[in-house]
Amino acid sequence: MIDNFSIALTHGLLFIAVWRLIQRPDLDHEDPPEPDQPSGGFYSQRGESRTNGPEQTPESHHA
User: What whole-number distance in Å separates Cα of residue 47 and Cα of residue 56?
Assistant: First the structure.
């Protein structure tokens, strides 16, 4: 009898805790993300692009 009572009591308390967490108003509200900051890293200081490498002029190409 005690075993069934303790199981029912703990499951009931867990159910109440989960129910109260689900009903929180801030559960469905999420703030928008912060806007991206401009890069101040190594590439922007050297004038290079991350995808294209160093900026090259037509005179710098060697055939």
Answer: 11
Q: Regarding predicted confidence, which is higher, 17 or 57? A: 17
pLDDT category at 11 given cuts 50, 70, 90 is very high
What integer is the mean pLDDT of 22-35? 82
Tell me how far apart the alpha carbons of residues 63 and 52 are, in angstroms, rounded to a whole number.
19
Please answer whether residues 55 and 48 qualify as being in contact, where contact means their C-beta atoms are separated by less than 8 angstroms.
yes
Query: Cβ(22)–Cβ(30) under 8 Å?
Result: no
Q: Which residues pair with 49 in a beta bridge?
A: 53
3-state helix, strand, coil in the chain (%, to 5): 50, 5, 45
Confirm if 31 and 37 have CB atoms less than 8 A apart: no
